[in-house]
Amino acid sequence: MDASAPYLSDRADDTAAGHVLHLLAGLAHAAGWVITYWYVPMVAVLLVWTVSEMVVRQLAKKASAERMALELVPAAHFDPGLEEIFRRGVQLARASTSMPWWAPRRSKAVQIRLRADGSSPLRYRIEGPAGGERLLSITPFGPAVTVNRARPLADKPRKHVVRAEFILRGKPTAPLRDVPLDPDPLQPLIDAVCDLRAEQGDLAEVRLDIQRAPKWTLRARRVQLMADARRRERREAQRAARWMRHDAGGVEDSLAWQVQQLVSGKQDGGGRRLVMPPVPRRVEPQDALGKLAEDDHLVRVQLLVMCASNTEGRAEARLGQLQAAFDVFGGGSRWAMRGWLVGPWRFGADRWPSRRAFERRWNLRHCQPPRPNWVRLEELTGLLKPPTVHCRLPLLAADLPTFEFDNPELLLQGIYRAPDGRHRLVATYAEETLFEVGVGKAGGGKTERALAQAIGWAHAGGGLMFVDPHRDSWPRALPFLAHDTLMHRIALIDLNAHGSAPQLSSWNPLGMHQDQVAHEVVEATADAFASALGWDDASAPRALTILTAALTVLVAINETACWAGRPEDQSTVFHVRALLTDPAFRAAALAGVQGRLDDETRSWWQTMFPTLPADSFAVVLNPIARLAANPVTRAFLGQPAGVYNIRAAMDSKMIVWVCPGGNGPTDRLITALLARDLLRAVRSRRDTPEARRAPFRPYFDELITLTGAAPETIAAMFEDFRKYRVHVHGMTQLLARLPAPVRLSLVQNASTLASTTGSQSAIAAITAEWGDHPSPALVAALDRYEHYISLTVNGRRTGPVQITGPHLDDVFAHYARPRQTAALTRAAHTTAGAAPLQQLTTRAAGQLERVSHFLTQHTPTTPAARTQKGYQ
């Protein structure tokens, strides 16, 4: 062995030791320099961080400028399932990554905006990257949700603004509460903003940003949670071991244990027993990590809230309401407002240093929560969809207009009580309210509501016809219509003949002095008789043929008399009997109108009529004889040139009150004649351009009585009148008692459907149209004058919503003129051409003689100018 080896080895060791000492000296020197000049590396780190943050902010700002917005409008029947909502959440999470590669993470988010400013109960918007528009436009909700491209929202500055940021507190691995879909999870938020007042500048907005959870941060958090769980388990095992040793020592030192050892003879001096400490249990990742165990469908969220108002205190109160609304979602984890409460002051998003960061994130739509708010999509179910059918939405002025007196564009509907207790007169747009149906028991408020609507429409300048078989509505409405501006427009057709000297108007259904079309008059009168008497081509073909032929001749006589300038010599419906049974009158009539009858009609009278047996006329003459036996109907229908002209009333926007007088056979026939004449008059408006047709509203009280006389006619009204700008309002106690054609047409075309209280079986037909929301039991429990009603506003159905029917003495108290009721009654009779009943009866009795005299004197001459009488 070389003798120099130990020397070389020692020298190498010295060299290595020198290097180590030199390195340690260098490190010590560097540490000393850092300690002495600590601000230099601090400034360098701060400078690097500042530059990088500025670059990131600029990139994020640029990326946020390329965003789009969609507004989701749910239908009234929107009722999604959990799977549909979950799929929507997956779409939102996926769309959050539709950004350029250079975009910072804070800009890779999709934002859900829930906004209420008084224009709607809650606007639901989705804002996200422009690249995700196609993905977000097609929702799993199907046609139940309309997706519209939304414009940017510009808010006016408010005087008072409060801001808040909500973060998740509680156990970080615990989920939020599983809130059911019925009632809607959004209901607390909507209730919190239901009393917003747009006129006071109220605004409330909630923004929920969603982005995918960062993988590296999530892994680090999982490692930390697992370490914490194992540490807790070891501490629990050590604590359990200490208690076991303590318990064992206590047992061996006890008197009972010593006595047991003496008795058993098992005394040993080996000391105490050996106690085996518990082994720490295995920590399962699923138990330790909870909702953070899996990456799938785990997102990071940011929840920002802003409330504003021009009235002091309202914004703060609104924020408190929203804070309470988010408490509904609290479970093992909960939403809590970020900040500290020090006495009356809260240091949070509204104060330094958090306010500037809040406003930057709010304005630029950046997602930078101060702590990792990690949630699974299932926890956000209630916020991933617009309001559903299970959500009770308040009615704002934009949803249901506020009624304005003397405004012809609005139609009064009732009194709506807002969630904050305010009462508001609500209305629908007149041009959209085509047909209305009111159902409910007697005394529930149907007629009172219809009267209020009719009176409001009359004062706004609209024309109407109120048909009330029982006449109760006329004295009720009289004080509120007794205005000088209305008196000349009101006509009363009252067939009840009350008082010692009753005044009665008159009407000739066959009259031609009002410029009518002959075949339409014949058809309307014949159809009215057929409807009231149950005739059709199968059951009574002969009666229909005879009556039609007779009416054709009488109408031709009247047409001749009018052309001759003698409308006072016209025949009436009572002259059918003379035409069929008096050969002299029949011969004079046929001779007088020979040139006005077509060949087929003349042939029927010459060849077929003589072959008819005498008893074949009875079925036609019997109803006419009943009309003639009643002095009121004889006087009303027996005048040659009656004043009643519903076509003129429609065109001149008159207010016509018609009281047929009851529901007996004669009354039903009168009602059928009036209804068929109304149908004929409305259809005759085809000769007027649509823009020049004045809107007109017939109100039919007691539809059961009216439709019993003319079911097909009333059904045709609900089907056809819309085309002619005539809009029917019907009221009935029982929908089921209406004839099937009327019931089907009425419900099918109703723009407004209302129900007061009643029996559940009677109300079920209406609630079924609403999907039994509300239920029949709920409607049956309504108080008097309370209604559930569905309305049509801006082309969409609103409701059903509960309203209070307007009471005339409250709503129209300023219209009441009780001292002018007598003057209005006189004016209404004058406009209707009313005359004493005895006078009209005498004239009707002598009309056959005047017609016969006219036919005797009449010879074909050059037609004279026709005169027109009626409502002027």
Which descriptors would you attach to this protein?
disordered C terminus, 872 residues, 24 strands, 43% helix, alpha+beta, 9-stranded mixed sheet, 9-stranded antiparallel sheet
Largest sheet: 9 strands, antiparallel
Tell me the strand percentage band.
15-25%
* Number of E strands: 24
Rg, Cα atoms, Å: 44 Å
CA(first)-CA(last) distance? 147 Å
User: What is the molecular shape?
Assistant: elongated
Total of helices: 31
Oligomeric status: single chain
Structural class: alpha+beta
Uncertain segments are 861-872
Could you report the average pLDDT, rounded to the nearest whole number?
87
Percentage of residues assigned to helices: 40-55%
3D architecture notes:
Helix 11 runs parallel beside helix 12, helix 14 runs antiparallel to helix 15 and helix 24 runs parallel beside helix 25. The strands form five sheets. Strands 1, 2, 3, 4, 5, 6, 7, 8 and 11 form a nine-stranded antiparallel β-sheet that branches. This protein has a nine-stranded mixed β-sheet with strand order 16-18-15-19-20-14-21-22-23. A two-stranded antiparallel sheet has the order 9-10. The protein is an alpha+beta fold. It is 43% helix and 16% strand. It starts with a helix and ends in a 15-residue tail after the last helix. The C terminus is likely disordered.
